[in-house]
Design goal:
This protein is an all-alpha fold. The protein has 2 domains: 137 residues, Hypothetical protein, domain 2 (Endonuclease III, domain 1, Orthogonal Bundle); 57 residues, no CATH class. α1 runs antiparallel to α5, α2 crosses α4 and α8 packs across α10. The chain is globular, with a radius of gyration of 20 Å. Bound molecules: iron/sulfur cluster. Iron/sulfur cluster binds next to loops.
Length: 232
């Protein structure tokens, strides 16, 4: 997700609007797939404007266009009733699009145009129905670390995601106790890196793509010498 500052690409209006919608549907769906769902919908509906598409379609139509590929079928191939989460995710997308149109003149980039602090940007994003700490944090990290949005306090107001993988790594490294809550993980990252708590997000890669997966491969780990949980 994080790119070097020179590689961060500014978002145009539609890309920014699509990104918020994509973060809203990043639940129980693979991240890369969630990020492609809006484009898939555009292809299916023939509409190339995200806000127009989500404000003109009914929630039922959004649910169908977005999640048809995920519809479960019975033994005879007949569709089963939609999963509850698809219905409310479709509703969140429609509500978010109406709010962007009403409060930000159809352009979500206006939410950060006064260069707010990280926590203020989070507060504004969390005013959208369905956006909580996880979804809002993902959106803020993406717009700042991948697309160069500037914050008044640079990275100081950007938290680490209290994801299971980050938490597992922090526990193994002895940085938080075994019974740490997600908020304990966030607080510890703030304490260790007050100017950029988000840098602890690197543990996600260490846990998912690096050696500290569920079945740790400690002999190839760069943190071997400092880790109290190393297994050899
Ligand atoms: S030494 Fe093992 S348990 Fe510790 S961080 Fe590395 S992979 Fe994880």
């Amino acid at each position: 997700m994080a790119r070097k500052p020179e590689d961060r690409t500014p978002l145009d209006r539609d890309e920014a609007n699509s990104l918020l919608i994509s973060c809203l549907v990043n639940r129980g769906i693979q991240f890369e797939r969630a990020m492609g769902l809006v484009n898939e919908m555009k292809r299916r509906t023939g509409c190339d404007d995200t806000i127009k598409m989500f404000t003109e379609l009914t929630t039922e139509m959004v649910e169908w266009h977005m999640f048809a590929d995920y519809a479960a079928v019975d033994n005879e191939g007949k569709p089963l009733p939609s999963l509850h989460r698809y219905r409310y995710m479709a509703e969140y997308c429609c509500l978010a699009s109406r709010k962007i149109e009403r409060d930000y003149s159809g352009d979500i980039r206006r939410v950060w145009r006064d260069e707010p602090t990280g926590s203020e940007l989070m507060r504004r994003v969390c005013e959208f129905k369905g956006v909580g700490a996880k979804c809002g944090g993902l959106f803020v990290r993406l717009v700042v670390l991948s697309h160069g949005v500037r914050l008044w306090d640079t990275y100081a107001g950007m938290d680490v995601s209290p994801d299971v993988h980050v938490a597992r790594c922090m526990k193994r490294l002895g940085l938080v106790p075994e019974d740490a809550t997600p908020q304990d993980v966030v607080n510890r990252a703030r304490e260790l890196s007050p100017y950029a708590p988000v840098e602890w997000e690197g543990l996600w890669l260490h846990a998912v793509e690096g050696p500290c997966s569920a079945d740790a491969r400690c002999d190839s780990c760069g943190l071997l010498r400092v880790c109290p949980s190393r297994r050899l």
